[in-house]
Amino acid sequence: MMTITRINPESLHTSPAFSQGILVEGGRTLYIGGQNGTDRQGEIHGDFAQQTEQAARNVMVVVEAAGGGLADIVKLTVILVDGQDLLAGYQASMKVLAGYAGTITGLRVAGLGRPEALVEIEGIAHLS
Fold first, then answer.
1. Which of 4, 50, 54, 88 is deepest in the core (most CB within 10 A)?
2. What's the pTM value of the predicted model, to 2 decimals?
């Protein structure tokens, strides 16, 4: 049996948007490769918010293909090109990831592998 326990010590800042740590016991681990805002044909369209929403959708497609769901994602890393609005990206991703309370790391970089990409999201899910 798999259990996921969210760790939020009282001595650290708390937020409904993330957990400080996650303890996973049992189950299987899925590593989600970096997802850009690509469509099925591999094309990237739209502004930062649109790309972020699509990247979040792509993350969920991978998780669901492995038999999991939103509650199984324990870690997300959001990599955004410098100059993009983190809040706009967060709001766009929540259209898909509403209720996510796992750990999250945000990074700003000069650029991504595809020059037109403004965001990339990777993650880890623990499946029962």
1. 54
2. 0.87
pLDDT in tens, 36-57: 999 999 999 999 999 999 999 9
The C-alpha atoms of residue 79 and residue 35 are separated, in whole angstroms, by: 10
- Domain map (residue ranges) of the chain: 3-127
Yes or no: is domain 3-127 CATH 3.40.190.80?
no
